Amino acid sequence: MIGGRLNSAGANAQLGSGDYIVVEADESDASFLNLLPVIAVVTNIDADHMDTYGHDFGKLKKAFVDFLHRMPFYGTAILCTDDPAVREIVADVTCPVTSYGFGEDAQVRAVDVRAVGGQMHFTAQRRNGVTLPDLPVVLNLPGEHNVRNALSVIAVAVELGIADEAVQRGLADFKGVGRRFQSYGEVAARAGDGSFTVIDDYGHHPVEMAATLAAARGAFPGRRLVLAFQPHRYTRTRDCFEDFVKVIGTADAVLLGEVYAAGEQPIVAADGRTLARALRVAGKVEPVFVDDIAAMPQAILDNARAGDVVLCMGAGSIGAVPGKVVELGAAPAVAASSSSTTSQHAAHKGEAS
Questions:
Q1: Which of 151, 173, 195 is the last residue of a domain?
Q2: 237 and 194 in one domain?
Q3: Cβ-count burial of 123 within 10 angstroms (0-12 exposed, 13-18 middle, 19+ buried)?
Q4: Once rounded to an integer, what is the mean pLDDT over residues 77-86?
Q5: Residue 127 and residue 155 in contact, taking contact as beta carbons nearer than 8 Å
Q6: Is residue 95 located within the same domain as residue 234?
Q7: Which of 106-110, 125-129, 300-304, 318-322 has the lowest mean pLDDT?
Q8: What's the distance, Cα to Cα, between the start and end of the chain in Å?
């Protein structure tokens, strides 16, 4: 049972026949402290949803420790020690711990990691008490962050005694989750011959955005990466402003939407226009500001070139944009309507104010 939609099941849950239920825990509202896990995986601890924790990162880390201590004495914490904040809490965890990651001290470790198209190939080393044979893995997802996710699966499988062949088959056949690097295929470029690739991703925090952008670089080496991003929540934009500037600036081209409020009131200097200005001042990329998300599909078609990879990111209404790009891209080009002229004109000029 997860927050996203499993592509293989067409739903966010699938009923099996085993003895365990796998649940995605949620720290955003501290509801994960209501769970009583037998095995708990902590992938990372980031400064997000900080209003729940009084804007105190120490309280957030303590909440994760409290979550792990809700396990019985025979439970196991599976912790990604590549993450600095997770590494910091290891000493406070009293239950048995299995570490995983790329570091030499990780008990479940990935070596010989290679990006092969949209897949990741690596070897998993397992040495928690008893050293098991190296496990060659083909993961049907891109990105080093997904290699780490696969390592957590392998660590859990060791705890449960799941056969290596079943683990390898599951990772090789995994069809992913909706809005997590979801491909919408190719769209014909308006200028010249050829097409561009459209990818959709739910990422909306700088850390996960950086991981997804890196995955795109690995999956599509040498291609121009166009980021179409809609910030999510004014508070997150304010709290992570400088990190957003750094991460967004790593794209080759940027189409930036206004903040998706998610019920929040606007905050001065935490809006899309201000973020676009900051990106321009940083000088790494010339941002294109699209004030109405409804105009984003047309702005993408107007700015994307043949061979580009267009990555649409955000947790708000931008989720409808990739499908609309495909729809508009299949239709004959027409003159822009008057209702979207302002945003599209700004997009052509790269205006941010």
A1: 173
A2: yes
A3: middle
A4: 98
A5: no
A6: no
A7: 125-129
A8: 43
